[in-house]
Amino acid sequence: MQDSTGVASFRKLTPAMMRAQQLALANDIVETSKGEVAMALKKAAPALGIDGTCYHILDILIGLTVADDWRPNRKPIVAISNEKLAEYVCRSKRTVMRCLKRLVEAGVMAYRDSPTGRRYVHRGEFHKGKLGEIERGFGFDFSPARQRVAELKELGEAFARRLKQEKDARRTVNRLLRSIEDMAVLAANEGLDFSEVLHAVNQAKDAPMGIVQKAEVMQGLYEMALGAFAAQEAECDANACSSFEETPPAGDICDTPYNNTNPQSLENISIKRRSAHADPSNHEDPDKAGIKRAFEKAPNRKVRAKSSEPSQEDKLQNISVGLLKTALTELQVTLGVEFNRWQDVTAHTTEMALLIGLSQAGLAEAEKRAGGYVAAAVLATTAEKALRDPELISSPGGYFRACIDRAMDGELALHKSLFGLANGA
Question: Of 215, 241, 267, which residue sits at a domain end?
């Protein structure tokens, strides 16, 4: 015999099942449509624990409902036997029964059992080519899903936000770990103490915590690593530069324009030329004499052989895409891109050249001399500095060419400037 809740006497009622039955008997019917509820159900299914075979059965049952039955004055009832469902999903009958119970307890549908346990739907006569209204129907009632359509939408959106947050957190953790590893290698090469930071990172990697919390912890460790690295770099630079107060370190990028643009009159140039040829003891070629005098002023200078010119890989030894992405924040915002791959950097060299007023011919020459990746990294660093402080570099184009010259001489430590920009960001 069927009770007032529509559940047969052979079923064992649970609190979740009773809540679903109460939603099915609600009087204030929510106005919605089959498509809207179906979309909300499919997005909220993972949050409700509906997956695998249960999701397959849910999809079949929703598809069997008639769109007109979702109107407020009707009941969206579907009638199908357990045996037929088992054939559709290629599972056993008991598996189908367990999945149906899970759907009811999830508040998606409610049982509407007949006194004999059979499931069937009797409709009225066709009207204007449409199915008639259900006069008697026993099976599964989707009224609970209709009543919860707003809640189901919120559940689906919250689940999607959580998935995106976790995905972003995983990417952040991987990116920060790579950046910290790059700093550790660089610190080992330069003899800096990085053991404390590495110990803290290893503890955070093995600690039992959520991925979002781990991303926050890794962000803090990365900032600590940047601070420690910058402090030790500053201390080393101060010690190294104490005896060279007038000249900048050869390993850093100098912001002084490399070319002398002070105008000279033709009269001064003529006087200099006459004075160079006026010395009767100067029997050598004037150019050779100038080179000789230059080496006499700097006798300890080493001449780099052409065969020992550093390769493109050597110039980028301490530079990774993660470091570029962390350091070049203003440039990425200006271009509207993210530097996730080297191709993302090299693909926007034309726009970066326009930002600093560099001609395409100058860019092509730099790429030919230093290589595409080196030229792109130097160009991006120059553009970042110019964007952060336009008054810092008087001639960004000349600054870029000077940096390329340093790179060709093996004297450009671009990673130091990038770590400084990352710390400043």
Answer: 241
* Per-residue model confidence (pLDDT) at position 283: 42
- Rounded CA-CA distance 161/44 in Å is 12
Task: Give the residue from 112, 147, 182 where a domain finishes.
Answer: 147
- The answer to whether residues 24 and 137 belong to one domain is yes
What are 351-360's contacts with CB under 8 Å, separation 24+?
A: 352/376, 352/379, 352/380, 352/383, 353/379, 355/331, 355/383, 355/386, 355/387, 356/382, 356/383, 356/386, 356/396, 356/397, 356/399, 356/400, 357/396, 357/397, 358/396, 358/397, 358/400, 359/397
| pLDDT tens readout for residues 106-135 | 999 999 988 888 899 888 777 666 777 888
Same domain, 78 and 178: no
Please provide residue 194's backbone torsions phi and psi, each rounded to the nearest 5 degrees: -125, 15
Judge if 31 and 124 occupy the same domain: yes
- Residue with the two structure tokens 């204007």: 128
Question: Predicted confidence band at 139 (pLDDT cuts at 50, 70, 90)?
Answer: very high
Predicted confidence at residue 105, as pLDDT, reads 93
Q: Is residue 280 part of a domain?
A: no
- Report residue 127 CA to chain centroid gap: 55
DSSP per-residue string spanning 140-203? EE-HHHHHTHHHHHHHHHHHHHHHHHHHHHHHHHHHHHHHHHHHHHHHHHHT---HHHHHHHHH
Same domain (yes/no): 139, 183:
no
Range of the domain at 376: 325-424
Q: Is the pLDDT of residue 350 over 70?
A: yes
Residue 26 lies in a domain: yes
User: Could you tell me which of 333, 338, 345 has the C-alpha nearest to residue 381?
Assistant: 345
**Angle in degrees, CA 108, 113, 116, rounded to 5:** 160
Alpha-carbon distances of 334 from 73, 125, 271, 353, rounded to whole Å: 56, 66, 50, 13
Three-state DSSP class for 370?
A: helix
Is residue 312 one of the residues assigned to a domain?
no
Contact yes or no for 407/315 (Cβ under 8 A) = yes
- How many separate domains does the chain show? 3
- Any domain includes 274: no
- Measured between its terminal Cα atoms, the distance across the chain in Å is 73
Same domain flag for 139 and 46: yes
Shared domain check, 143 and 26: yes
| Separation between Cα atoms, residue 236 and residue 230, nearest integer Å | 10
